[in-house]
């Protein structure tokens, strides 16, 4: 069964509640980076990052980011794909929370 998040976004109290649950779960875990996978990670990632005092790093499909990027290719059940981020966006030793819609599509790689 597939449940799209757009109905959640239409209800500010419910959307805030979902963000608050994630913030409460990760607030005291020393996370310095929230990385959001295109595109739903861009909806949930920034408010979580702001609330826990972390920076936000977008993880995008190829050729979407300006400047120098690093890439990670991965296999899907129906092919392959790739994510990119800016070089230097995450420093060695930083703790990263990755926000994705993996429940909806199962398309991005496991961490």
Automatic annotation (TrEMBL):
GO terms for cellular component: cytosol. Keywords: Cytoplasm, Glycosyltransferase, Purine salvage, Transferase. It is found in: Cytoplasm. The keyword Cytoplasm applies. One of its GO terms (biological process) is purine ribonucleoside salvage. Residues 6-108 form the Phosphoribosyltransferase domain. InterPro entries: Adenine_PRTase, PRTase-like, PRTase_dom. One of its GO terms (molecular function) is adenine phosphoribosyltransferase activity. Pathway: Purine metabolism; AMP biosynthesis via salvage pathway; AMP from adenine: step 1/1. Pfam families: Pribosyltran (PF00156). The keyword tRNA-binding does not apply. It is an enzyme of class 2 (transferase). Its EC number is 2.4.2.7. It catalyses: AMP + diphosphate = 5-phospho-alpha-D-ribose 1-diphosphate + adenine. It comes from the Eukaryota. Catalyzes a salvage reaction resulting in the formation of AMP, that is energically less costly than de novo synthesis. Belongs to the purine/pyrimidine phosphoribosyltransferase family. Homodimer. This is adenine phosphoribosyltransferase.
